[in-house]
Amino acid sequence: MNQEKRYILRASLNLCVFCFILQIDKCSAVDPQFVVCNKPVNCRYGPRISFPFYIEDVQKSYCGYPGFGLNCSEQGFPVVHIAGNEYVVEDIRYQDHTFQLKNSVFNSSVSNGCVSAIKNVSLYNRPFDFVKKSKIYLLSKCDGSISQNLSKHMIEFGCGGENGNDWGYAMIAEDESFESALQVCEKHVMAPVEMLGDEGSNRDVDYLVLLRRGFRLKWTAANCSECVESRGHCGFDVNTYQFKCFCTDRSHALSCPPSTAKIKTDSRHSFLLHRSCDFALLLEKKDFLAQQSQVLGI
Ligand SMILES: *[C@@H]1O[C@H](CO)[C@@H](O)[C@H](O)[C@H]1NC(C)=O
Ligand SMILES: *[C@@H]1O[C@H](CO)[C@@H](O)[C@H](O)[C@H]1NC(C)=O
Ligand SMILES: *[C@@H]1O[C@H](CO)[C@@H](O)[C@H](O)[C@H]1NC(C)=O
Ligand SMILES: *[C@@H]1O[C@H](CO)[C@@H](O)[C@H](O)[C@H]1NC(C)=O
Ligand SMILES: *[C@@H]1O[C@H](CO)[C@@H](O)[C@H](O)[C@H]1NC(C)=O
Question: Which ligand ends up closest to the CA of 227?
Answer without folding.
Answer: 2
